[in-house]
Amino acid sequence: MPRKRVRLEHAVEYLSILDEKGRVDDKLEPDISKQTLLDIHRMMLLSRRLDERMLTLQRQGRIGTFAPAKGQEASQIAAMAALSGDDWFVPAFRETAAMLWRGIPPENLLLYNAGYSEGGAIEEGSHDLPISIPVASQIPHAVGIGYASGLRGLDEVTITFFGDGATSEGDFHEALNFASVLKTPVIFLCQNNHWAISMPRGRQSESRTLAQKGLAYAIPSLQVDGNDVLAVYAAVQEAAQRARDGEGPTLIECVTYRLTVHTTADDPSKYRDEEEVEKWQGREPIARLQTYLKKKRWLSDKQIDKLEKEIEGQVDKAWESAHERIESLSDSQVIFDHVYAETPEYLESQRQSFADRLKEGE
Amino acid sequence: MAELNMADALNLALTQEMEKDDSVVVLGEDVGVDGGVFRITDGLLERYGERRVIDSPVAETALTGVSVGLAINGLKPVCEMQFSGFSYQGFHQMEAHAARMRWRTRGGHTVPMVLRMPYGAGVHALEHHSESKEVFYAHTPGLKMVVPSTPRNARALLVSAIRDPDPVVFFEPKAVYRAFREEVPDEEETLPLGESRVAREGDDLTLISYGAMLHRALEAADTLAEEDGVEAEVIDLLSLSPLDHSRFAESARRTGRVVIVHEAHRTFGPAGEIMARLTEEAFYYLEAPVRRVTGFDTIVPLFAREQDYLPDQERILAAARGVLND
């Protein structure tokens, strides 16, 4: 009756392909087309600039509280780029970059952040879910969507995003176990950005990695450099293949960093040192990708300048159209729409009395 | 005596109770180093250390369930839910355990915990940050449900809640946190749970409200006095459970006309229960059907339209004048 080490189904690996100095591990370099990489780069830049603009607009009081994605563009965009448009996207609340990749117009994001639910409208038939604010609560949805894809015989993979803090929630653990038992085609993508508001990663969990939480449920799990476009892409591509082959879920921990506030209502100077932020600023994903693309001669400084100008124009235009739409959205009766498929009589009468007041105010 | 806003007054209550009673512990997300996202627990970590001020992982089920355990084993936990919209993962613990422990063990185990959370709209917050779902708790036997309205009563009620032998859900109107200041005595002050107060005296009409909406009811009462020469009595419920109906029923018997104002949804909202109590206690004295001005039965809209959702002066005055003219 020995006492011996029990071997688990999987072990946690760490994957890094493009390091912070822009050096590449040739053996691991994934086959991504030039065009895809340039598209990824453009979208990362758009996300960054839109984020910056939204911060300014928020400080001017023109839009409300939002959660910036700054620093996490690689984890989001490279992940989405490795999937197809038919795959399902189940975000948390910081996935602006991923949402842009999915084709959600910047003006919609601005409209939503300005407090208008029209900005959150999702077209029927879309495979995008709306943002989910209660931490980890969206993760079980991904498992249900994934199971449904299997049951309906559809070749779809579902990816869900969440942060380091979410791995402390029951919803996360319940969803992982469920997905493992049912072998659902789901990719659990944890963006470990090191901070859950004021709670540092080291105090969120004693686990050495967050990826290892998947091992408890026999889910293949790995940790990747989340600021490395190539590693994130390769990891998600591999996970997607496993899902399509009927081998079930994967947990990917993208190690990245929240370079700015939790939300615009937060003041990080109360709990973290600027030195740490500067250290991570040196590892941020966009400059790293640019170095890589320049080495390949697929991108030049001149092209970057041109792109920056284009993006500035695009962001200007997005705010202009968002602003125009806001001006045209004077009728607040829409708050009564979409509560049910068919508005019940009692609610219709509430709408009517609200509408009558609006009329009197004219 | 100092002029404090509600956030500071709540902080004073926590500080004084922690100072006085070693068994009081505070736990929640960002309550330590950050001092809470609304700064209600600011300074507690520095004063009382991390064993009594617990910065928790993001885990509302555990936060609530751990509080139940802390309370069973001799401590007085004050647990902060960052926003009421995040409390539902912990609701299971409140309904299945906190509320029932005394009853199930025939008094052998008790749960003297406080579950604090900001509620309500009006501060330009995100989705899930503006709801007013106090009925979930007020509907649950075994829980007490408190909603203060001013800095001074918030402080006194929180002290009473901490000392109460039963689980108390403490809803803080976030729109009031920093809205105004009020004299708050330095020395200890408590208010009994389950007791309402008269916030304004009058004999012509009774307005019943609580929390952030109380201030809208008071404003409407002032307008009625100025423009209509009508003196409205304004009752501030302070507790929804136990619900003190004797004071508002007495007022209704005197005025014969009642309007209830709250931001919770209308259907099965607190006004429904208040109207039932009025029917039981004051029916023959009523001169007009009781009216209610409430949040609509919609999802609470995003912030650009949150004022459309909330009861406003126009709606409150229309209801009051309607009741007066019926």
Poorly predicted runs of chain A: none
Structural class of chain B: alpha/beta
CATH topology title of the largest domain in chain B: Rossmann fold
What's the alpha carbon Rg of chain B, rounded to whole Å?
19 Å
**Count of structural domains of chain B:** 2
Beta strands of chain A, count: 8
Total helical segments of chain A: 12
Q: What would the average pLDDT of chain A be, to the nearest integer?
A: 96
Sheet with the most strands: spatial strand order of chain A? 1-7-8-4-3-2
Q: Tell me the CATH superfamily of the largest domain in chain A.
A: Thiamin diphosphate (ThDP)-binding fold, Pyr/PP domains
In total, how many domains does the architecture of chain A comprise? 2
Quaternary structure type: heterodimer
* CATH level-4 homologous superfamily of the largest domain in chain B: Thiamin diphosphate (ThDP)-binding fold, Pyr/PP domains
Strand ordering within the main sheet of chain B: 3-2-4-5-7-6-12
List unreliable stretches of 5+ residues of chain B.
none
Task: Report the β-strand fraction of chain A as a percent range.
Answer: 5-15%
Tell me, rounded to a whole number, the average pLDDT of chain B. Answer: 97
CATH topology of the largest domain in chain A: Rossmann fold
Percentage of residues assigned to helices of chain A: 40-55%
Q: Could you tell me the number of beta strands of chain B? A: 14
